[in-house]
Specification:
Blueprint: H1 4-10, H2 12-28, H3 53-65, H4 87-99, H5 109-125, E1 132-136, H6 139-157, H7 162-165, E2 175-177, H8 182-190, E3 198-200, H9 212-221, E4 227-231, H10 243-253, E5 256-260, E6 285-289, E7 301-305, H11 308-315, H12 345-380, E8 384-386, E9 394-399, H13 406-419, E10 426-430, E11 433-439, H14 447-469
Parallel strand pairs: 2-3, 2-4, 4-5, 5-6
Antiparallel strand pairs: 1-7, 6-7, 8-9, 9-11, 10-11
Helix pairs in contact: 4-12, 5-12, 6-8, 6-11, 9-10, 12-14, 13-14
The structure holds pyridoxal-5'-phosphate (PLP).
């Protein structure tokens, strides 16, 4: 049979070359590409009977989508918290697909790559060796995993095996936090804890970090045990809970301490900023994203947890003889939600070895310096109001427009800024005000980018502030 698949097999080298050329062209133009674009695409390719082969599929992709690709990995994409891809991370990611190894047990190098990458990361972050680290698909899955093991621990305190009996055997478990990321309540929903079991504790005035004395009071008045989610880098203002104080309370009252350090964990790369994480090495579980500040491609994050038996109790593939006995032999798949999994660690392995502690220190400190620079110019500009001091890599601000118009004005402004293609940021609400966030976590971002983005931001702000102030 004249199968396209057989034909492509013969031309694998050429197909890789075509793909490499496409990638190179994309990357060499990423500085000029729009950071964001609202696109409408008519996706109407019919499922082909015979197939067109890889080369024609690439051509079809170029035609259909080529004009709608954006520089989300570029230097002026400041929306959400979105890292880029370092050159070495791209090498590792490409090889990951070329080899297609399943990173589970010792049946290939993939297992050792993951184990070694976790060890490298622990060194980078200054985390103790006793944490079991595993790659998962993102910080949401990492938070899910930490909470799942925390839930198992809470059950154990009460003589209940939740992995076996389910949450029905332990009603009323509460998760406490100050300013939790939305993925926490999502994970609670998935875990059967229920979103309504999230207790948001008071935060300090003009801050997003928990009020430790309010937590202490809560613990004195309510019967646990609880799970507490510490925030090490909130998305609006990158505020940090006082983790060292949380550790003391945990030791006194007994709760599971999970730290969501999705991007804030990278403060550990800098001698100047690592104090923000003081005490995190004593947490029960820690979430750190890789596809944000580590600048590896989507989808990669790590869960670090220091209770391996509880972790296996939750995630083991019990009774699947063909997967082996979880107690007899370590296998990643018995410790995390995913079973079959790509070699997520390899892009990180490449990037960590390629750039070292020094490279990541520079990356983190450079982004922080640039965020502060942007914060300073906005603060000096009467069109803007800086809503919080720039603590790390996020600038949270709004337009200088009071009253009812503020919402509409900020929306109109953000739409115009993002439509410019020069820079992309996201909307938020901070301290009850419509606000804008610029999150700088990309290795490509430079002073030139901040200047360029600010010029666009300023010109559009003048227009909109005038319109709403003198309308
Ligand atoms: C991004 C983020 C998450 C969710 O991460 P995903 O990688 O998108 O799943 C969770 N917590 C914090 C603090 C984050 O910044």
């Amino acid at each position: 049979m004249d199968l396209k698949l057989q034909d492509d097999l013969k031309h694998t080298d050429q197909l890789l070359q075509l793909t490499k050329d496409f990638s190179s062209k994309f990357l060499s133009a990423i500085d000029k590409l729009a950071a964001d674009k609202q696109v409408e695409i008519n996706c109407r390719v019919a499922m082909p009977d015979k197939g067109m082969g890889g080369a024609a599929a690439l051509e079809m992709f170029r035609q259909q989508y080529g004009n709608s690709l954006t520089a989300a990995a570029g230097p002026r994409y400041w929306g959400f918290v979105t890292g880029g891809v370092t050159p070495a991370a791209l090498m590792g990611d490409w090889l990951t697909s070329a080899m297609d190894l399943n990173s589970s047990d010792k049946s290939s190098a993939a297992y050792y790559v993951e184990t070694e990458t976790i060890a490298l990361l622990k060194e980078l972050f200054g985390l103790p060796a006793e944490f079991l680290g595993c790659f998962v698909s993102g910080a949401t899955m990492s938070n899910f995993t930490g909470l799942a093991v925390g839930r198992q621990w809470v059950g154990q305190q009460q003589g209940v095996d939740i992995a076996a009996e389910g949450m029905a055997a332990l009603p009323g478990l509460k998760v406490l936090s100050g300013t939790p990321h939305s993925s926490i309540s999502k994970a609670m929903s998935m875990l059967g804890l229920g979103r309504n079991s999230l207790v948001k504790l008071p935060v300090l005035e003009n801050r997003e970090c928990v009020d430790i004395s309010a937590l202490k009071q809560y613990l004195q008045l309510n019967k646990g045990p609880f799970i507490y989610v510490a925030n090490a880098g909130t998305v609006n203002t990158v505020d940090f809970d006082d983790i060292a104080e949380l550790v003391k309370l945990r030791d006194e009252y007994g709760f599971w301490l999970h730290v969501d350090a999705a991007f804030g964990g990278f403060a550990a790369c800098s001698d100047q900023w690592k104090f923000l994480l003081k005490g995190w090495e004593k947490a029960d579980s820690i979430t750190i994203d890789a596809h944000k500040w580590l600048n590896v491609p989507y989808d990669a994050a790590m869960i670090f947890c220091r209770h391996p038996q509880l972790q296996t109790a939750v995630f083991q593939n019990a009774g699947a003889a063909y997967l082996g006995d979880p107690a007899a032999r370590f296998n990643f798949i018995n410790n995390i939600p995913e079973n079959s999994r790509r070699q997520r660690a390899l892009p990180a392995w490449f990037s960590l070895l390629a750039y070292g502690k020094e490279g990541y220190r520079w990356l983190v400190e450079n982004n922080i310096a640039l965020a502060k620079q942007l914060g300073n110019v906005l603060e000096d500009d009467p069109n803007f109001i800086l809503l919080a001091p720039v603590r790390l890599c996020v600038v949270c601000f709004t337009l200088n427009i009071a009253g009812e118009d503020a919402d509409a004005a900020v929306n109109e402004y953000l739409e115009a800024v993002n439509a410019s293609g020069v820079v992309c940021m996201t909307a938020t609400v901070y301290a009850g005000k419509p606000a804008i966030r610029a999150a700088l976590v990309n290795w490509r971002t430079s002073e030139k980018d901040v200047t360029m983005a600010y010029e666009t931001m300023k010109a559009l702000a003048e227009k909109i502030v005038n319109k709403y102030t003198y309308a």
